[in-house]
């Protein structure tokens, strides 16, 4: 098998991967960095992010202590307080770095317009209208393209991570499937920045590429995952049952004044939480789930008929255009919404420098479990986490870069051409299992049944098929099993996890 060598390999082209590459480029101008995307280079979960990034930018009306408190409260006892403090305190610095790179947040110069979202006690969300993620990715990609030592490669699917037993089981690169066939890429350091796995559910805000590749790659090379039971469901995704890619209605819309109503017109979330429609996502998603179950309806309503339509279109142009396309007149009609799989709060265990338990394998972004989010992520803390840990990882390499000797002889030739198997049908089977048994509310019997069905599917899948569709399906089954197993191991309900046979929450602790 042919191979090539780079100094640093980045798997994933979202905010974690691209910002890490940029920092490494600055710190190591003579080292070669390659960024791999399994699809187009601008396709990622980040590109879909509407809301923004949480940071304390106005110390007269906000404080680090308050942001920390809000994050810990949302995390419901599973956050690492030291990590929360570090991330919150580094947030303003990361926002200034984005501005320096060329991101233009809404507002005037050094006074950004700060929005409010569920779980936040005050306005602290920096945003670029309602397309923050896409705006950031556009800037980061431009910067990466300008860097002489960064190479961006699209349509590169990572089949497996490589390791060398003679080097203390260190990760030494990746085997990839590309338009030019299968080959090995050697690297002194490999960064996993692969995002989440929303596609294991049929109703998700995530793009089609979000199949959980990083989770599975990490498991296969021998590193550990944690808190996989804690899947966050975004409360307000546009209800359109026949649409392949459901459209998310940003939490910022509720921060701007929209309210949730049931089919009787009641602001029902107040029955569950005094914060109403601005409660944390776990609370709101379960409230909607309960209302849907009780009413027999398929969705609830998001009401912003009281908005000035011109202001709404100016502040949320993407959402406004989408609703117009759907023939929803927000002046007179409410918007149908329901929860959808959105974010994995658990993942690959890392320390504050993005180090995993496998030497020379780093990780950042949604594929990780850093201790920041705990049992439920606070809105707009995800892009922040990716930025902080990507920079930490790059800074640590600046003073601790260790080169490896590459030797990947004996890697068999692999064909990743399209298979004849009907994997789309099997993917739907996985999604049906997860939808019915591993959703907002879970039960022990359904989880046990889901595990048996997923294990049966796993045994049916040929291990010798290396087509991308086959690999993605094996990944989805592995990730789904990890979620099910961790759900069965839980002993109490907290944050985004709820099992109906676990009624008592164990003592809440602020740190792990």
TrEMBL record:
Q: What is this protein called?
A: L-aspartate oxidase
Per the record, the major location class is cytoplasm
Q: Which residue ranges run through the membrane? A: 7-28
Q: Which GO terms describe its biological process?
A: NAD+ biosynthetic process
Q: Which family does it belong to?
A: Belongs to the FAD-dependent oxidoreductase 2 family. NadB subfamily.
Checking InterPro entries in the record gives: FAD-dep_OxRdtase_2_FAD-bd, FAD/NAD-bd_sf, Fum_R/Succ_DH_flav-like_C_sf, Fum_Rdtase/Succ_DH_flav-like_C, NadB, Succ_DH/fumarate_Rdtase_cat_sf
The EC code for this enzyme is 1.4.3.16
Please give the organism.
Answer: Owenweeksia hongkongensis (strain DSM 17368 / CIP 108786 / JCM 12287 / NRRL B-23963 / UST20020801)
């Amino acid at each position: 098998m042919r191979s090539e060598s780079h100094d640093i390999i980045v798997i994933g082209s979202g905010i974690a991967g691209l910002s890490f590459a940029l920092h490494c480029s600055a710190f190591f101008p003579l080292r070669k960095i390659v960024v791999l995307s399994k699809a187009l280079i601008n396709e990622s979960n980040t590109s879909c992010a509407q809301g923004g990034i949480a940071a304390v930018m106005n110390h007269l009306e906000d404080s680090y202590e308050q942001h920390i408190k809000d994050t810990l409260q949302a995390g419901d006892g599973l956050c690492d307080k030291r990590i929360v403090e570090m991330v919150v305190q580094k947030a303003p610095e990361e926002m200034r770095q984005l501005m320096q790179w060329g991101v233009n947040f809404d507002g005037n110069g050094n006074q950004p317009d700060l929005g409010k979202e569920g779980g936040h006690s005050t306005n602290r969300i920096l945003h670029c209208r309602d397309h923050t993620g896409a705006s950031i990715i556009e800037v980061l990609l431009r910067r990466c393209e300008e860097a002489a030592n960064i190479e961006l490669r699209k349509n590169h699917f990572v089949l497996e991570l490589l390791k060398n037993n003679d080097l203390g089981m260190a990760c030494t690169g990746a085997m990839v499937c590309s338009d030019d066939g299968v080959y090995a890429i050697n690297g002194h350091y490999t960064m996993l920045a692969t995002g989440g796995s929303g596609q294991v559910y049929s109703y998700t805000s995530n793009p089609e590429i979000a199949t959980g590749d990083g989770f599975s790659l990490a498991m296969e090379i021998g590193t550990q995952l944690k808190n996989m039971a804690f899947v966050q469901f975004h409360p307000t995704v546009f209800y359109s049952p026949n649409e392949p890619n459901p459209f998310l209605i940003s939490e910022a819309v509720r921060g701007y004044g929209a309210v949730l109503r049931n089919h009787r017109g009641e602001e029902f979330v107040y029955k569950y939480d005094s914060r109403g429609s601005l409660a944390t996502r776990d609370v709101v998603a379960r409230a909607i789930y309960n209302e849907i179950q009780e009413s027999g309806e398929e969705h609830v309503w998001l009401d912003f008929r009281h908005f000035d339509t011109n202001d709404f279109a100016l502040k949320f142009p993407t959402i406004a255009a989408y609703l117009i396309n759907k023939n929803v007149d927000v002046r007179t009609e409410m918007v149908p919404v329901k929860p959808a799989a959105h974010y994995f709060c658990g993942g690959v265990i890392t320390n504050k420098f993005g180090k995993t338990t496998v030497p020379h394998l780093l990780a950042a972004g949604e594929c990780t479990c850093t201790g920041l989010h705990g049992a439920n992520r606070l809105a707009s803390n995800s892009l922040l986490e990716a930025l902080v840990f990507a920079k930490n990882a790059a800074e640590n390499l600046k003073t601790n870069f260790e080169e490896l000797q590459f030797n990947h002889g004996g890697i068999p030739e692999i064909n990743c051409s399209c298979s004849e198997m009907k994997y789309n049908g099997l993917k739907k089977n996985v999604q049906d299992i997860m939808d019915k048994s591993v959703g907002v509310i879970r039960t022990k019997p359904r989880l046990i049944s889901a595990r048996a069905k997923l294990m049966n599917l796993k045994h049916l899948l040929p291990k010798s098929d290396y087509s991308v569709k086959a690999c993605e399906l094996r990944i989805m089954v592995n990730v789904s099993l990890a979620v099910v197993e961790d759900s069965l191991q839980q002993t109490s309900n907290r944050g985004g996890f709820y099992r109906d046979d676990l009624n008592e929450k164990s003592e809440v602790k602020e740190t792990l």
